[in-house]
Amino acid sequence: MASMTSPPRKTALVHSHAFDRFDYGAQHPLRMERLGLTWRLMEAYGLIRLPHATVFTSEPADERDIVALHTQSYVDVLKAANTGEAPRAASLHGLGPGDNPVFPGVWDVARLIAGGSRLAAELVARGEADRAFHFAGGLHHAMHNRASGFCYVNDAVLAILTLRSAGLRVAYVDIDAHHGDGVQAAFYDDPDVLTISTHERGERLFPGTGFVQESGGAGALGYSVNLPLEAYTESEDFLAAFEHVVPPLLRAFRPDVVVAQLGVDAHLTDPLTHLALDVQGFARAVARIVELSPKLVALGGGGYDLRNVARGWSAAWAIINGVELPPSLPASFAPDLRRFDFEGNTLWDAPVELPAPVRERAHTYVTTQVAAVQRVIFPHHGL
Ligand SMILES: [Zn+2]
Questions:
Q1: Does the active-site annotation cover 141?
Q2: CA-to-CA dists, residue 269 to 105, 163, 175, 232, 303, angstroms
Q3: pLDDT for residue 3 is more than 50
Q4: Which of 26, 31, 113, 267 is the most buried (most CB within 10 A)?
Q5: How far apart are the CA of 349 and the centre of ligand 1, in A?
């Protein structure tokens, strides 16, 4: 893995141990303990103390930073929901039983996540880090006036706005299994922000969007890029498609900085989605993003099999730092291995053989989608 990455540069890891205090609810698939678990695996691997890396503690974003994207009426409702009791207008803004529950501290945690992603962006904008990683971030579904898909405040958009206000040209690359619809919507008419999202096709998965034809508003055609994938797409097909689409567009767009959403829910065992990546494939995609990014603000995202989340984001942070990890999980991580029911003690996954017709279907689909991106998007970039 490490042989694919550039030499280490100044890096920043942004985290808060306060996340442990929050809970979406016992039945909710987004488990906050995935963040602490990831931190502990990074710590066990020695990734918290690296020569060129600094760990920063996130602070809650100010309300005035959040209204750079979100409407005041939505923010007012989110603030009122902080008690854990749903305010009257909650359902008008996507809050309530289901995906976006009202729980005690919902505004506090949204502000904390937003603040962490803004800090990661500020560190890169100020030149204090070349690459920053805030793995609690990447809540890419939140819309300007409503919560959506477990996301209350769109920290990815706020990070991009932070970089834009420093005069930087930004490309956004999102490899979460779900379409990065909130980020796409925020910059749909803006040709100065290129958004690229790879995800399971909208007919099969929330939020039901992310088709190639969603290519940008009238003044920004070709600056919203979507690569939908068929169920059971494996690492090999995903990486080949990624290679056809992402590097040429980034080279043509020439960003100063890339904001990457590194959701790890495209994994085969993720309980909410149907793609078939392994941790190795995820890590190779991260390595390519790192190589292609002059500077990088990396965020987390989805991931509902906690064992994949901890392994995927530890691998990502190692790659960001040009560090090669031993494939065996460290002995000091053993209590978590048992508690979270890890299948083995390895960072990487054992090979899984999917039935040939299933693989063939995914392969055929992605081939047609890459061709569609090349037809619909590439001409706008002189490709
Ligand atoms: Zn997702």
A1: yes
A2: 30, 35, 16, 11, 10
A3: no
A4: 113
A5: 20
